Amino acid sequence: MSKTWIDDSEYDDAVRRAERVERFAWKAIGGVSGLLALVAVVAAVALVAAGLALAYAMTVVAD
After folding, report:
1. CA 46, 47, 49, 54 torsion-angle sign
2. Per residue in 29-57, pLDDT tens?
3. Over 15-49, what HEC string results?
4. How far apart are the first and last CA of the chain?
């Protein structure tokens, strides 16, 4: 009985493509998460600035 060569090249190519797509997906998730964190920080700074401006305006008007 002779051994039959099993060609797994298509499977290996599919695995490589899937791994490449997975790496891209994780990079995209990381990028979007970073962008959302940046937006949250900017919004927090804007909120604090608006609060300080309002507090200053209230003290100026009160005088």
Report:
1. positive
2. 999 999 999 999 999 999 999 999 999 99
3. HHHHHHHHHHHHHHHHHHHHHHHHHHHHHHHHHHH
4. 103
Quickly tell me which residue has 């499977």 as its tokens: 11
CA distance 63 to 53: 16
CA distance 62 to 40: 33
Q: One-letter amino acid identity for 34?
A: G
pTM, entire model = 0.65
Rg of the chain over Cα atoms, rounded to whole angstroms, equals 28
Does 62 have pLDDT greater than 70?
A: no
Q: How many CB atoms lie within 10 A of CB 52?
A: 10
Give the per-residue pLDDT at 3.
Answer: 64
